[in-house]
Write a structure and sequence with these properties.
mainly alpha
Length: 122
């Protein structure tokens, strides 16, 4: 009879050990499920971040194109301003020449209108 009692005690001990291991397994499974949910959430967040990064790259490319276009327009305006300044300088030079010619013509006309001096009396 001693033997069945020991066997029963061993069985009860094994059952308690199995129950403890089952509790540990249940806790590990619960932790695994939490980790899976966290992983899924992280995957979703990663997809959202990748989508935002793709949109940012697209926007960056668009802005770069707009900047290049604006720089080209600025260069065209600079060239137009330089051309206008050159035309202004040319017009000022022509005006100065005309004024000089008018002054020269006025001097000649004034000289022609002035009667020559009388010859000295002898």
């Amino acid at each position: 009879m001693l033997r069945p009692a020991m066997t029963l005690a061993k069985l009860e001990a094994s059952h308690l050990e199995c129950t403890d291991k089952q509790d540990d397994l249940d806790a590990a499974n619960a932790e695994l499920e939490e980790l899976r949910q966290a992983f899924r959430a992280t995957q979703l967040e990663c997809c959202e971040v990748e989508a935002r990064a793709a949109r940012a790259r697209d926007n960056s490319s668009k802005l770069e194109g707009e900047c290049d276009h604006a720089l080209a327009e600025i260069e065209q305006l600079r060239l137009a301003i330089q051309g206008a300044a050159n035309e202004r300088d040319l017009a000022l030079t022509k005006l100065a020449r005309r004024r000089h010619f008018i002054a020269w013509a006025h001097d000649i006309a004034t000289h022609l209108e002035t009667p020559p001096p009388s010859p000295p009396a002898l």
